[in-house]
Design brief:
Layout lengths: L2 H19 L6 E12 L4 E10 L6 E12 L2 E8 L3 E3 L4 E10 L1 H15 L4 E10 L7 E8 L4
Antiparallel strand pairs: 1-2, 2-6, 3-4, 3-5, 3-7, 4-6, 7-8
């Protein structure tokens, strides 16, 4: 087989592998525990333990995860993972994420929304999982509900 044909065959194999990899299903991302690690007047930091379920038939190496947390439509925090990790095929893993907030800036708007709503506040936890796999773009995730309910 000539070098040119071999190169083409390798390129086609790589393309087919890339196409197969792009069919990854979105992992389930669930916040588990929240611990205050630093409290200042202008910024607070929380360590949030996140649980990840991988529905795919291959391990999912994660380079990073970033997220935002909104309560009643008000941005209350942003976070990112502290180090890379791998979720086994059809498996689960927990990792820690640091979420930074500024209650002084967000509390007034948040209180107005909660009082106007008259019920348990709604939250939106969303972000991106950045797989450490060539040709795979970041995978979005989102979870929403009411605070104080499972």
């Amino acid at each position: 087989m000539s070098f040119c044909r071999l190169s083409r065959a390798a390129g086609i194999a790589l393309l087919l592998e890339g196409c197969a990899l792009t069919s990854l299903q979105t992992p389930t991302i669930t916040p588990q525990t929240v611990e205050l690690t630093d409290a200042g007047l202008d910024q607070q930091q929380f360590r949030v333990q996140i649980h990840v379920q991988n529905p795919n038939d291959r391990p999912l190496p994660i380079k990073s995860v970033s997220c935002t947390l909104q309560v009643e439509g008000v941005d209350v925090g942003k976070g990112k993972s502290t180090e890379p990790f791998t979720v086994p095929a059809h498996g689960e893993a927990d990792f820690d994420m640091i979420v930074s907030t500024n209650f002084a800036a967000t509390v007034p708007g948040l209180l107005r929304q909660i009082i106007a709503g008259g019920q348990l506040p709604r939250y939106q936890f969303s972000g991106w999982v950045n797989p450490d796999i060539t040709l795979i773009p970041p995978i979005p995730f989102s979870k929403s509900g009411q605070l104080g309910t499972p």
